[in-house]
Amino acid sequence: LRMEGALRRALERDEFRLYYQPQVDIATGAVIGVEALLRWQPQLGPMIAPDDFIPLAEQTGLIVPIGDWVLATACAQQKSWRDAGLPPLTVSVNLSARQFQHRDLVGLVARLVRDTGCDASSLALEITETAVMENPQAAVAIFRQLSKMGVRLAIDDFGTGYSSLAYLKRFPIDSLKIDRSFVRDITDDTDDAAIVHSVIALAHSMKLKVVAEGVEDARQLQFLREHGCDQMQGYYISKPVPPAGIESLLQNR
Ligand code: G
Ligand code: G
Ligand code: MN
Ligand code: NA
């Protein structure tokens, strides 16, 4: 209960921050996007990672106003980078199941795109495979409306849930993000290598891009490149950083 109050006050006191992790096109090495990752910086004390407060935010429903803040902030950031003349970046935002099921998600996104003046086709929403599969029929309908607005859609943590391929085929999604648990041992574990290899082939057969998460070294990147993976993110390029970190990364490349 105390933690719930603290979360509520964190919103009022503007204690949330967005960090951004670069996403790189494997073929060209160009930074083509960033994933927005939420942090809580209390006035006193160390920064708190999302795993330590998002579960509670989901239980209490606070994820809805927090998620609204995340979306609004990410849209405004994208617009601000565009105005500053940075190369175009797709900004990806994570949605929890609860936000995804919220009745006015489509209206909210439409309003935010209009109000911030951001580019809808440079906004991507990441929904986990598990959240989608809670109600695939509803998901298809929401995806169709978002896709019509030009918003990009990605299935996050792919491989950790149980997707029905029949549904996946009907989703107007743009990409699959391979969960970092499969990438970690890609160069040593033949099962993980086989899984990643097949996910890339499957995605490409459905005209989807594949993003590998959690890339930490050159050998993992080499494997992914050899298997035609499209994009990657991970500590090998950069950990999540504040907006200024993205700006200096782009200037130094
Ligand atoms: O940034 P970090 O690697 O600690 O993120 C941990 C988890 O928190 C990831 O699964 C990520 O998807 C989730 N997460 C990060 N930011 C957000 C957010 O803004 N909204 C939601 N719903 N989840 C987020
Ligand atoms: O579930 P989602 O993919 O949205 O979460 C991304 C999470 O993965 C964030 O918490 C981010 O900090 C973390 N992450 C990003 N890159 C790496 C990496 O190279 N290695 C590890 N171990 N974690 C990473
Ligand atoms: Mn994600
Ligand atoms: Na993920």
UniProtKB/TrEMBL annotation:
Signal peptide: none annotated. Residues 1-253 form the EAL domain. The chain holds residues 347 to 599 of 599 of the full protein. This is Diguanylate cyclase (GGDEF)-like protein/PAS domain S-box-containing protein.
